[in-house]
UniProtKB/TrEMBL annotation:
InterPro entries linked: CheY-like_superfamily (IPR011006), Diguanylate_Cyclase (IPR050469), GGDEF_dom (IPR000160), Nucleotide_cyclase (IPR029787), Rev_trsase/Diguanyl_cyclase (IPR043128), Sig_transdc_resp-reg_receiver (IPR001789)
Domain of life: Bacteria
Name of this protein: diguanylate cyclase
Gene Ontology biological-process annotations: cell adhesion involved in single-species biofilm formation; negative regulation of bacterial-type flagellum-dependent cell motility; phosphorelay signal transduction system
Entries under NCBIfam families matching the protein: GGDEF (TIGR00254)
Keyword Nucleotide-binding: no
């Protein structure tokens, strides 16, 4: 059943993750028996642990007991919906409260369904399957909307969202944020000489090679514009950005894609502009982009097939 449920959801590589929250371990055990075969089951016996698990593990669905000592299920749901990183996780309440007003209250808090206790395994399974299908479909749609159709890497929209998020995270942690913009050298001549279809193939191969090189889970490679790529490197200083950019140039060179009309190399090369800033409230994300752009311009002016780095001003002392 679960196999057919998730058929066609190609972005789903691992088993779906279900978090069961109940202060009675025996109740968790009963529900775990229903799902342990098909899902990765996470468990929590109180509200604070449930919230922590949601932040660190981002389950695909939460089965949440309402009546718990200390933090109730309602409190947990409210907290999850108030936080950007957890607000899209669907919550199903498990409750022995049979009053309609309790259900209305739960829906107003953002729950997607209610299951009455004592539970019926078939009902729990059907309701969870339905909500999971919706969640995974919406994940897939979101992922399509954030992916560049031609190269399969992140698109400009995802780049903008991620840069904003990482800007705020690095500002909070007073950490350096680096950005590399990469541009294929003499790509107009490549297109003119080899044709647009070959040009597209070339961009796909470059994207693939760059993607393999961008390894840290918080780094992001995106298609920035036509033949431009960008790489966001959170918590990375100028030296780190230079190192990464040089590596990116090397992997493209190593592809050895013949470029007979390039004036710098017999094979396709790229130029890179890297910029590093420690974000603070006096700066904007546009400054980082424009510094990286300026560095890229210098790399082009300096002869192409090279990296230039610009380090932005340090934040003022507080
Ligand atoms: N095949 C293909 N070409 C594209 C795509 N997006 C942009 N281009 C082409 O990339 C070329 C970029 O040319 P320019 O900006 O003049 O720069 P360049 O020829 O690479 O020269 P330099 O950047 O100065 O080394 C243009 O001819 C665009 O049409 C695409 O998706 N596919």
């Amino acid at each position: 059943m679960i196999e057919t449920l998730f058929k066609g959801l190609s972005t789903q590589t691992a088993k779906p993750r279900l978090l069961i929250v109940d202060d009675q371990p025996i109740n968790i055990h009963v529900i775990n028996e229903i799902f342990k075969q098909d899902m990765d089951v996470l468990m929590a016996t109180n509200g604070p642990s449930a919230i922590e698990l949601c932040k660190s593990q981002t389950p695909d669905l939460v089965l949440l007991d309402v009546m718990m000592p200390g933090m109730t299920g309602y409190d947990v749901c409210r907290a999850l919906k108030a936080e950007a990183s957890t607000q899209d996780i669907p919550v199903i309440f498990l409750t022995s409260l049979a009053e309609e007003r309790d259900e209305i209250f739960g829906f107003q808090l953002g729950a997607v369904d209610f299951i009455n206790k004592p539970i019926s395994p078939i009902v729990v399974k059907s309701r969870v399957d339905t909500q999971l299908r919706l969640k995974l479909q919406s994940d897939q749609l979101r992922s399509i909307g954030l992916t560049d159709g031609m190269t399969g890497i992140a698109n400009r929209r995802r780049f903008d969202e991620t840069l904003d998020q990482q800007w705020r995270a690095c500002e909070r942690d007073r950490a350096a944020l680096s950005l590399i913009i990469l541009d294929v050298d003499f790509f107009k001549d490549y297109n003119d000489h080899c044709g647009h279809l070959m040009g597209d193939q070339c961009l796909k191969a470059i994207a693939q090679a760059l993607a393999v090189t961008v390894r840290r889970p918080t780094d992001l490679l995106a298609r920035f514009g036509g033949e431009e790529f960008a790489c966001i490197l959170p918590r990375t200083d100028g030296a780190g950005a230079l190192n990464r950019a040089q590596q990116l140039l090397k992997v493209v060179c190593d592809l050895k894609i013949e470029h007979l009309t390039s004036r710098v190399s017999p094979v396709v090369t790229i130029s890179a502009g890297a910029a590093t800033l420690t974000p603070d409230r006096f700066k904007t994300v546009f400054e980082l982009i424009s510094l990286a752009d300026k560095a890229l311009y210098r790399a082009k002016e300096g002869g192409r097939n090279q990296v230039q780095v610009i380090i932005g001003p340090e934040p003022p002392e507080t």
